[in-house]
Specification:
disordered N terminus, 2 domains, 28 strands, single chain, globular, Neuraminidase, mainly beta
Length: 339
C-alpha cells in the first residue's frame, strides 16, 4: 500500500505540473494576441477603382488628386489614365497616356504637371517620357530618359525638378540617378548614391527629405535604407531595414507614403509571397514600428496616393488575381474591421 500511495502522489504532482504548464501557455498566447490587437492603424474602404483591375501601374499625386495609369491586367498592357479625388472619393477617366502600353513605369509631379516614363511593354524596357497637363487634360512627349531603357525604377520630385533612379535595364539592376529640369527639358546624371543596385524599390517624402529603401537584386531583398536631401541633393545612409531582429521590413514591389512627419512601407513581396504588413518610420529616431496590416488581401505591385495628410493604397495583384480595391489609412486610430 505504501508503494501505491507514493505512486498516486507522484501522479498527482505530474498532473498539477501539466495543468500549470497549460495555464502558462494560454497566458503567453493570450498576451501575444493582445499585442497584435494593440497595433495602431485603421484602414477604411474607399471607392473601388472604376476601370480594369491591374498591377504595376504608375501613380503620382497633386494636391488632393491622385493620378494613375498604365499597368498590366494579367492579359494586356494598358495605357488608360485616371484620377482619384481624395476628398470627393470618386474616380474619373482622363485622356489616355500617349505612349505604348506598359507596366512598371515611373512617375512624379512638378508644380501642376505630371510626368510618366520608362517601363516595360511585354517585350522591351523603355526610355520615353511624357508630361501631363492637369489643367488641359493633355499630354506632350518630352526628352527621352538619358539613363537608358529600364523598368521598376523609382521617381520623386522637388518643387522644381524630377528624379529617376535604380531599376532594371533588361540585363542589369541599376543604382544610378538622374535629374530632370522641366524649364530646359534636360536630364543630367547625379552622383553620390552609395546604395546597392535594385529594382522595384520605393520612396516616400517628408518635407524636403526623400527616403529610399526595399527592392530586390539578384533575387535578394535589399536591406539598406537612404535619405536624399532635396536642398543640397546629397544622399545619407540610415540604419539598415533589418537593423532590429524584430523588424520585417525588407521586401520588393511594395508602396511607400507619408502622413505628417512619419513614413510608411506597405504591402509588397516579403520573400515568400505578397504581404499586408505595414511599418511606420520615425525620422527623428531612425526607428520603425509595426502598424495594423492592410485590411485587403495580400498584394504586391500596388499604388499609393498621398498628399501629406491623407494616404490611400489601391490595386495590385495577389498571385494571378488582379485587384481594384482602394483603402485609406488612419495611422492613429484603432482597427475597425467594419468600416
Amino acid at each position: 500500500m505504501k508503494t501505491k500511495n507514493n505512486l498516486f502522489i507522484i501522479w498527482r504532482i505530474q498532473l498539477q505540473t501539466l495543468s500549470l504548464l497549460s495555464m502558462v501557455f494560454l497566458i503567453v498566447v493570450g498576451c501575444s494576441d493582445d499585442d497584435d490587437d494593440e497595433l495602431l492603424g485603421n484602414w477604411v474602404d474607399r471607392s473601388v477603382f472604376d476601370g480594369t483591375p491591374r498591377s504595376s501601374a504608375v501613380a503620382f499625386s497633386i494636391n488632393n488628386i491622385g493620378y494613375m495609369g498604365t499597368g498590366f491586367d494579367g492579359d494586356d498592357y494598358l495605357k488608360d489614365f485616371w484620377k482619384y479625388d481624395m476628398e470627393g472619393n470618386f474616380w474619373s477617366q482622363l485622356a489616355d497616356f500617349p505612349g505604348i502600353e506598359r507596366s512598371a513605369a515611373v512617375g512624379f509631379a512638378i508644380n501642376n504637371n505630371g510626368y510618366i516614363g520608362t517601363g516595360f511593354d511585354g517585350d522591351n524596357e523603355l526610355n520615353d517620357f511624357y508630361q501631363y497637363d492637369i489643367s488641359t487634360n493633355t499630354w506632350v512627349q518630352i526628352s527621352n530618359f538619358l539613363g537608358g531603357n529600364r523598368r521598376g525604377a523609382v521617381g520623386f520630385n522637388s518643387d522644381s525638378a524630377g528624379y529617376v533612379g535604380t531599376g532594371f535595364d533588361g540585363d542589369n539592376d541599376k543604382k544610378d540617378f538622374w535629374k530632370y529640369n522641366p524649364s530646359t527639358d534636360e536630364w543630367t546624371e547625379l552622383v553620390g548614391f552609395g546604395g546597392d543596385k535594385r529594382r522595384d524599390a520605393l520612396t516616400f517624402t517628408i518635407a524636403d527629405k526623400v527616403y529610399l529603401g526595399t527592392g530586390i537584386s539578384n533575387g535578394i531583398n535589399q536591406e539598406d535604407f537612404w535619405v536624399f536631401d532635396i536642398s543640397n541633393e546629397t544622399w545619407t545612409a540610415l540604419k539598415d531595414l533589418d537593423d532590429n531582429d524584430d523588424y520585417q521590413i525588407t521586401r520588393n514591389n511594395a508602396v511607400g507614403f507619408s502622413i505628417g512627419n512619419k513614413g510608411y512601407v506597405a504591402t509588397g513581396n516579403i520573400g515568400f509571397g505578397p504581404s499586408t504588413s505595414i511599418w511606420e518610420y520615425e525620422p527623428s529616431t531612425d526607428l520603425w514600428v509595426e502598424k495594423t496590416a492592410y485590411e485587403g488581401i495580400t498584394r504586391e505591385d500596388a499604388i499609393a496616393f498621398y498628399n501629406g495628410t491623407k494616404a490611400f493604397v489601391a490595386l495590385g495583384r495577389s498571385g494571378t488575381l488582379y485587384l481594384d480595391d482602394n483603402r485609406e489609412f488612419f495611422p492613429l486610430e484603432t482597427e475597425d474591421e467594419d468600416d
